[in-house]
Design goal:
Number of domains: 1
Distance between the termini: 19 Å
Helix content: 40-55%
Largest sheet: 3 strands, parallel
Order of helices and strands: EHHHHHEHEEEH
Shape: globular
CATH topology: Rossmann fold
Length: 163
């Protein structure tokens, strides 16, 4: 199987839900999310939601606990482990964010199976707040793809794997 690259999306593929919505709903912030949704781009919205959650006492540990409860199809982890054991190179190209992806992959015990993760950058700042940013700064320049969200071109990430 050497030379075979398997590319996964994350939301609705490795987990059975959208990770952003899962965290927002799981922590009880759905109403605020729905109120803010029409007013800003998705990544800005998620960064704002993390700010609001933090201001109301939500911790990184709270977010991690919700992520650990993400619904996973019972065959996904064995499929990932099998493909890795066969020598396939596994990668993720996702419009989720690195913190959510890495947290769930570590929880599932499969993070080491993936050679590359391409997603929206995120980090925990000095105040303990999760910050989420777009993969491409679409406010400065477009990635030029009409098939993908403005903040992340999955097509160019996928093409870079193939060519």
């Amino acid at each position: 199987m050497a030379g075979i690259v398997v590319v996964f999306d994350f939301d609705k593929t490795i987990i059975d839900r959208d990770s952003d919505n899962w965290v927002v709903d799981g922590l009880g912030f759905t109403d605020l999310f729905n109120q803010l949704l029409p007013t800003m781009p998705w990544n800005t919205l998620m960064d704002t939601m993390m700010k609001e959650m933090h201001a109301q006492g939500t911790t990184i540990d709270d977010i991690v606990e919700v992520l650990k409860r993400s619904p996973i199809h019972p065959r996904i982890v064995p499929a990932i482990k099998s493909a890795h054991a066969l020598g396939c190179e596994l990668r993720i190209v996702s419009d989720a964010n690195m913190f959510f992806i890495e947290t769930i992959l570590e929880h599932l015990g499969v993070k080491e199976c993936f050679s590359e993760l391409n997603s929206n950058p995120s980090f925990v700042d000095e105040e303990g707040r999760l910050r989420i940013f777009p993969y491409h700064d679409f406010t400065k320049t477009s990635h030029g793809c009409n098939l993908c969200p403005p903040n992340m071109c999955k097509v160019s990430n996928f093409n870079s794997i193939l060519f």
